[in-house]
């Protein structure tokens, strides 16, 4: 199992390289929920850095792209050193097919967020020759292991971080500020939270970026306690540091790389970043309730 980390600053790649196997970067025009948006020059520099560090690097392009953006995505890819990229993470089938037309299908990593919940759906695009896919974040550990036993492509999984639980392509914060006749100073800010009146103890991180508006779980999902089980089943475990920083990435990577279960170190991280960890949906089955007649 390889560890991947999202990135805030390419200057920190060398220090993070001691405990990670690769990096995830992207540009906000084609990606959603980035830690930081990198321009073309910075992306190519990061690709070069990764090569020099003998690390893998992945381009995140997980927006739902309309026809115009798909064409711009093609131009964007032409400006990137795609030969140096290990994979390109996309969310819709249109993006997958665009990669195919550009001869990059073997670098495609399909991540439709919540859809890949069984082994049949997970392996569906194998016939197209894609590199891998992300399993859904909302499935149990039992389901994760079941899918992994039958995987025919590389299996990616978010293993640590705030899980996105609501998404709207609308700029909801902007719309609210516009309605109040105020300037929107909150776009792309990573320090905002929604607090419900009934659950004030569970603030939900919220982010508005070019892709829309995103609300995340209040708890940080941690798979640290399950690494011995996951190690032989997952190809790439992703540590998402959104709302944090590269120092947080370094601290978390050290725990995961060395499988350190030092409770004091863990509690120190939680206290420093004012966060709580849980096991996500590993033991929470999704239940659909029908309306009673």
From TrEMBL:
GO terms for biological process: proteolysis. Keywords: Hydrolase, Protease. The keyword Kinase does not apply. InterPro entries: Peptidase_U32, RNA/ubiquinone_mod_enzymes. One of its GO terms (molecular function) is peptidase activity. The keyword Hydrolase applies. Belongs to the peptidase U32 family. This is U32 family peptidase.
